[in-house]
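User: Sequence recovery, please. Input:
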C-alpha cells in the first residue's frame, strides 16, 4: 500500500466519505486497485474499516411528510434541527405536530410526544380524531409519551375511575409507553425522562420528538432555566443524536417573550397564522416557513385547513371565492354589495384536493363549522 498526492480534481469523489476531492487526492494501492481519498484521515479510516460510505451522510436531510411544508422545503430539512412552531390561537399547531409524528411513524421510525397541555389519553384522541390510528404504534412501543400534565391532578385514581370504557381502553394501551414527570418545573427530571425514552427507542439518526407547548413550559419555570433547557435539548437531542425536535408555541399576548424570542437559538421557525384580512368576515389559517438553517426554504404564506385522513391541506382562498362567485351567476358576481376584496392569499391547492360542494351541488365559498370530508379543503369565503 502506498500513498501519493494526485492532481486536484473536484469532480472525483473520495472513495471513503464520498465528498469531492477538492484539494487533490491521497491514493491507496491495494491488490492492484487504486483508491483515491480526500484526506489522510479518510485513507486511514478505509484501512481500519471493513466498510465505506456509499453516499455523503452528514447532516442528512429528510422530508416532513406534510405536503403543505414539503412544497416549500425542496431540499428537505436537516435531521439535527430544532424547529419552533409559532402559532396564533386557533391555528391548530397541535394538529400539525400530530401529523409530523404520524408521518414519522409511517416511515417506520419511532417518535416521542412531550405533552404539557393534555393528558396522554387526550393526546391519543387527537390522533384518532384525524383518522390516524396510533394504537398499534403504542402497543408495539414505537410511540412514547412524556406526560408533563397529569401532575396537576391531585386525585389520579378518581380521574381514572371517571373515565368511560373507551378511555380506559386507551389508557391501558398508553400506560406502558408513558413516562410521567412528577414535577415539570424540575428541568433535570424532565430531561432525564426524555432521555430515557430516546434510549429505550434507540433513537439516533432516526425518529422525531414533538413538544406540544413551550408556552406552557415557560409558565412553569424561570425564564433563564427555560432558555437553558431548550438549548440543552437542542444540543443533546438534535445535535447529539441527530433527532429533530418540533416544539409548539402559542402567541397569546406579547410575541417577543419566551419562547417567541428564540429565533436566534433554533434551527427553524414555522409560522401558523389566523388572518382576517384575506376574506371578509372570515379567519383564514395560513402557514409559512420563516427560517430553516442549512437548506433552501421558501418563506411564502399558504392557506390551509386540516382534513381527517389527509392532515394539512393547502388551498387558495381567492380561487375558492372566485369559483363561488361564478357558480352564483353573473348577477351575483356583478352586484357591488356581493363583491369581496382580497389582498395576499394562498397558493394553488394540491391536485388531489377536491373542492367542497353545497347540498345544491355548487362549489362552497363560506366557512363551515362542520367537519370537512376527507381529501377536501374547507369552505373559505362568503357564501351569502
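Assistant: Recovered sequence (384 residues):
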Amino acid at each position: 500500500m502506498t500513498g501519493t498526492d494526485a492532481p486536484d480534481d473536484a469532480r472525483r469523489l473520495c472513495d471513503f466519505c464520498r465528498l469531492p476531492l477538492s484539494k487533490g487526492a491521497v491514493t491507496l494501492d491495494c491488490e492492484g486497485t487504486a483508491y483515491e481519498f480526500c484526506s489522510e484521515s479518510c485513507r486511514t479510516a478505509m484501512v481500519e474499516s471493513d466498510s465505506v460510505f456509499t453516499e455523503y451522510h452528514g447532516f442528512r436531510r429528510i422530508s416532513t411528510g406534510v405536503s403543505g411544508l414539503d412544497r416549500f422545503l425542496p431540499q428537505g430539512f436537516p435531521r439535527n434541527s430544532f424547529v419552533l412552531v409559532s402559532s396564533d390561537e386557533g391555528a391548530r399547531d397541535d394538529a400539525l405536530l400530530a401529523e409530523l409524528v404520524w408521518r414519522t411513524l409511517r416511515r417506520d421510525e419511532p417518535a416521542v410526544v412531550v405533552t404539557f397541555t393534555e393528558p396522554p389519553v387526550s393526546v391519543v384522541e387527537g390522533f384518532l380524531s384525524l383518522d390516524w390510528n396510533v394504537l398499534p404504534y403504542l402497543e408495539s412501543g414505537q410511540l412514547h409519551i412524556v406526560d408533563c400534565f397529569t401532575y396537576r391532578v391531585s386525585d389520579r385514581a378518581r380521574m381514572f375511575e371517571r373515565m368511560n370504557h373507551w378511555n380506559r381502553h386507551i389508557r391501558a394501551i398508553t400506560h406502558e409507553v408513558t413516562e410521567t414527570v412528577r414535577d415539570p418545573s424540575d428541568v433535570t427530571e424532565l430531561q432525564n425522562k426524555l432521555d430515557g425514552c430516546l434510549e429505550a427507542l434507540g433513537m439516533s439518526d432516526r425518529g422525531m420528538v414533538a413538544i406540544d407547548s413551550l408556552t406552557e413550559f415557560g409558565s412553569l419555570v424561570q425564564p433563564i432555566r427555560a432558555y437553558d433547557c431548550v438549548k440543552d435539548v437542542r444540543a443533546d437531542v438534535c445535535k447529539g443524536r441527530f433527532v429533530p425536535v418540533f416544539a409548539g408555541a402559542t402567541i397569546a399576548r406579547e410575541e417577543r417573550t419566551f419562547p417567541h424570542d428564540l429565533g436566534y437559538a433554533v434551527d427553524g421557525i414555522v409560522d401558523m397564522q389566523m388572518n382576517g384580512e384575506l376574506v371578509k368576515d372570515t379567519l383564514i389559517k395560513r402557514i409559512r416557513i420563516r427560517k430553516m438553517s442549512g437548506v433552501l426554504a421558501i418563506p411564502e404564506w399558504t392557506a390551509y385547513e386540516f382534513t381527517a385522513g389527509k392532515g394539512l391541506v393547502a388551498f387558495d382562498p381567492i380561487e375558492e371565492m372566485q369559483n363561488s362567485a361564478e357558480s352564483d351567476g353573473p348577477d351575483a358576481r356583478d352586484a357591488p354589495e356581493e363583491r369581496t376584496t382580497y389582498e395576499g392569499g394562498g397558493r394553488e391547492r394540491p391536485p388531489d384536493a377536491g373542492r367542497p360542494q353545497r347540498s345544491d351541488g355548487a362549489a362552497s365559498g363560506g366557512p363551515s363549522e362542520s367537519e370537512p370530508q376527507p381529501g377536501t379543503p374547507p369552505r373559505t369565503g362568503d357564501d351569502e
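The radius of gyration is 25 Å.
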